[in-house]
Automatic annotation (TrEMBL):
GO terms for cellular component: proteasome complex. Keywords: Hydrolase, Metal-binding, Metalloprotease, Protease, Proteasome, Zinc. One of its GO terms (molecular function) is zinc ion binding. Residues 1-128 form the JAB1/MPN/MOV34 metalloenzyme domain. The lineage of its organism: Bacteria, Bacillati, Bacillota, Bacilli, Bacillales. It comes from the Bacteria. GO terms for biological process: proteolysis. This is Proteasome lid subunit RPN8/RPN11. InterPro entries: JAB_dom_prok, JAMM/MPN+_dom, VirAsm_ModProt. Gene3D superfamilies: Cytidine Deaminase, domain 2.
């Protein structure tokens, strides 16, 4: 998996702005190339945004529409952990139903970005490289 450094920089900036709440959004590639070249922020509408995230539906519907029009592909989700490490919480695992997507977490605690798959509750870290 490849992610553009500019996407990471953009997300980190957004995560800092949303602190102490979790920031979240979706990651997009061009069709079939598996290179993440866009981050789309989605407001976190969770009633407990310090500990979990929930996408605000109207923004995500608009984002999916634009992705389709631009012939891009939704390939991942990203959120921040403001005060904990970059590992999926039990709530994250419980709430996740998209085994085909990559699941990214950035920790503001230690400035780490990690990518995972979560398939039937099993968390597996996946390697990635950055592209300038
Ligand atoms: Zn989380």
């Amino acid at each position: 998996m490849i992610i553009f450094q500019s996407v990471i920089d953009q997300f980190i900036q957004y995560a800092k702005e949303q602190y102490p709440n979790e920031a979240c959004g979706i990651l997009v590639s061009s069709l079939d190339d598996q290179q993440i070249n866009e981050f789309i922020p989605i407001p976190n509408q969770s009633s407990n945004p310090i500990h979990e995230f929930e996408f605000e539906p109207s923004t995500i519907i608009k984002a999916f529409h634009r992705i389709e029009v631009e012939k891009k592909e939704w390939i991942g989700v990203i959120h921040s952990h403001p005060i904990s490490k970059a590992y999926p919480s039990s709530i994250d695992v419980h709430n996740w139903f998209y085994p085909e997507l990559s699941y990214w977490i950035y920790s503001l605690l230690d400035d780490q970005l990690k990518a995972y798959t979560i398939i039937k509750g099993e968390v597996r870290e996946i390697p990635y490289s950055t592209f300038n």
